[in-house]
Design brief:
6 helices; 3 strands; GMP Synthetase, Chain A, domain 3; alpha+beta; three-stranded mixed beta sheet
């Protein structure tokens, strides 16, 4: 039996991730890992907890003034994260 449609391992894994809708979850976690790079180490140190759920990143911040500043730049942060990930997987950021 001769194989005519040989696929690489990367193609097989990519197909599986798309079929099972795992790709979105993986990209969301990647965006969460890129958070320190986007906001910088100084702001990252002031965040106490970060998690992502269904395209929404929730960030807990102790400083009210920093929370207000980040809320004003929310759309820019979302655009930067999605740009680094390569797809628009982050829809919103909630600061608490």
């Amino acid at each position: 039996m001769k194989r005519t449609n040989a696929k690489s391992i990367a193609e097989i894994i990519g197909d599986f991730m798309q079929q099972e809708d795992i790709e979105t979850a993986v990209l969301e976690q990647k965006a969460l890992r890129l958070w320190p790079q986007v906001v910088g180490q100084g702001i990252n140190r002031l965040t106490t907890e970060r998690y992502v759920d269904d395209g929404v990143i929730t960030v807990k911040i102790a400083s009210a003034s920093l929370r207000n500043d980040l809320m004003l730049s929310r759309s820019n942060l979302i655009a930067q994260l999605n740009n680094l990930v390569g797809k628009p997987v982050i829809k919103d950021i909630i600061f608490r």
